[in-house]
Amino acid sequence: MELAELLRRMVIERASDLIIKVSTPPCLRIDGKIHFLDVDAVTPQEAREIYETIEDTKRDGFFNRRDIDTSFDMPGIGRFRVNIFYQRGHLGFAFRHIESQILDFAELNLPVDVMVRLCSLPRGLVLVTGVTGSGKSTTLAAMIEYINTHFNKHIVTVEDPIEFIHKDKKSVITQREVGSDTEDFHTALRHVVRQSPDVIMIGEMRDRETMEVALSAAETGHLVLSTMHTVNAMQTVERILNFFPPHQHNLIRLQMSLILEGVISQRLLVRRDGKGRVPAVEVMVATPTIKELLLEGRTTELYKAIKEGAYFGCRTFNQSLKELYEKDLITLKDALEAADEPEALKMELKGIIKGAQPGDFGFKF
After folding, report:
1. What is the pTM for the complete model shown?
2. How do residues 127-147 score in pLDDT, each as one tens digit?
3. Which of 76, 81, 179, 198 is least surrounded by Cβ atoms within 10 Å, i.e. has the fewest?
4. Ordered structural domains, the chain, with CATH
5. Does an H or E element contain 81, and which?
């Protein structure tokens, strides 16, 4: 069972992921759903051969750590990220295809005006959030590419692993990979501000130390871009606070009110036409009201402020889903399943004014 053939099949089928483990046939994730390939189950020897195919310096420490993330190019096929792990005593793999072309905001169905505005900021912290597989890395790559195309800046990235490869255009881009270019995340981040960056991209906010570096860098005049595994802006703010002990929360709230410029949260939905997936996007921009809420710790009021902040570029998931549905990009069923407030979305899509009864309009839900 050749890895190259499996990866080629992955690209042809437009699958986001390829999962390989012993005693089971390989499977592809297509539009979010698992599909087993019609081939024999993977043997321990085949798993070992796949492992040997992946040439990377990080493999040296794999048998001690039992988990690694890395990325690699398969000639003639494409670029891939892989997590190598052990399960039930055998090797396992989760591959993700990295598109060679970095798409722009319009091609990704992202709100162009607000994305451009956030990328044009001279300083501050901008976070892209969502669950695993929601397109965070793709959005972050589009943001880096926009800056690269439009501004003369030095962009430094710290990634584990490097996914999208950027070529210098108007900007110079320094891409550092944990394990090959730097010993670990924390070492790289301690030195990043000494490398004359204008923009710092941190692959993921993993812990308190990473967040401290991000907040400090944003405070000292850098634009910091990163991702978090949170589902919306409100949860993102709470997660940032929870990185720190309670006695520091007032200080962190003050810092967020001053430097948190935007939170872009994503959820991918299957397109109605079956041609891939499209993101529903919640956007929280640091409006005067939102800055005040952050400072005062009134996190539960953020949703209302986002809903009422359209003038500044804010939008809720429900507003984004409504737009996607009206453009005939997604089904009603998928829109309601992805909504934060499905009943409210249902009312909006039916054109019902708040406070009216369903029967007043002659239809049933």
Report:
1. 0.88
2. 999 999 999 999 999 999 999
3. 76
4. 3-98 (3.30.450.90), 112-348 (3.40.50.300)
5. strand 78-87
